[in-house]
């Protein structure tokens, strides 16, 4: 911490903040699990709307800390936490978390960790969604659903992902910026230097 | 919460947590490629028996957990049952179309979710966080900073719970819990989420600084307060799981309960 310029490498503060956030979302996942399960028997895939919340940890952590790796760590740790809290689905969550985290991270990496807009957050949520659908295609036999039902499912899931894991983390991080906590954990950006001029 | 846990002296508590973690996680791969309904029925039955024998929860809690998990697992299959593809129609009304194939597929999905939940429960109820993270560092070579980070984070759960109570009470005392409407709901959510998150971030940051001030080392070789090793129980565990899995496959081959050996076939 003594070096004057913060690098993009993760230090202990970043790791702890990421893991604590992951734990908070792990708890949220655990609590949302039963709600999600109860929506399922309606058969109209209202549950798919809620599915988006499970992608939130990665974009949120990335938007907050703005360093490489945090998105992946956050999503995986949140999944692990959900498993340790005995969430419904058990071990499955871990694999979903890994894949979602990787794909979410890939979006931020593609913009070389320089762009953290609403669009990128949504895109990262969308990438996580693609990951979840790939696993579901094998795991839940998605292609075996009737055509209209599958379409409804995918549309709801995309909507949910964009709203709950694109827009929501963006709004939350904007709110956190107002509280001032973000200043101390983000790497120094160009704007920060400009202020000094 | 005192009577939730049975004694932590049971066999599954003594297994090396990393081994337990790896074996239990790899079960996902095994059952991902099972498309035989009979195998899944037998597997879920056998894992149910195993769960009752080894789980760390006491009888009453255990029963309700299994019961709810079963219901919820069947819920998760409802879409496949009601709207899946298939030819042999059992029931049709409006959009709902239940066929033999989709019913079999749905039941398989439900049982698979059920089995994974049970396996997850076996892991979650017999693994204590601290030995688990120590074992991750020692056996799976997870970097010390992540494992310690997780342990520190776990310590913060009770503080977070207390904080949540405080926010709730503060809102009630100021009459904010009585406000109605979408906007009030949105603001209430915001107040909970932002306060909790901001506080958690600050706390994590303080903890990290404190750890570094106490010379917590991220890179050097280190010693451990708890040494997690191996024992003969680990061997028992591997044998038990292997037996359960093989028995599932053997039973489904010799005592098929349904004619659906591949639910992906039409």
From TrEMBL, chain A:
Keywords from the UniProt entry: Membrane, Transmembrane, Transmembrane helix
Key word Metal-binding present: no
Record protein name field: Thiamine ABC transporter permease
Organism field: Sporolactobacillus laevolacticus DSM 442
TM spans (from-to): 12-36, 48-65, 77-96, 116-139, 151-172
Record-linked Pfam families: ABC_cobalt
Presence of keyword Chloroplast: no
UniProtKB/TrEMBL annotation, chain B:
InterPro entries per UniProt: ABC/ECF_trnsptr_transmembrane, Cobalt_transport_CbiQ
Keywords in alphabetical order: Membrane, Transmembrane, Transmembrane helix
A Gene Ontology cellular-component term: ATP-binding cassette (ABC) transporter complex
Signal peptide annotation: none
Bilayer-spanning residue ranges: 21-51, 63-83, 235-257
Keyword Nucleus in annotation: no
Protein location: Membrane
BP terms from Gene Ontology: cobalt ion transport
Membrane topology listed for this record: Multi-pass membrane protein
Entry keyword annotation includes Transmembrane helix: yes
Protein name (database record): Cobalt transporter
Species of the source: Sporolactobacillus laevolacticus DSM 442
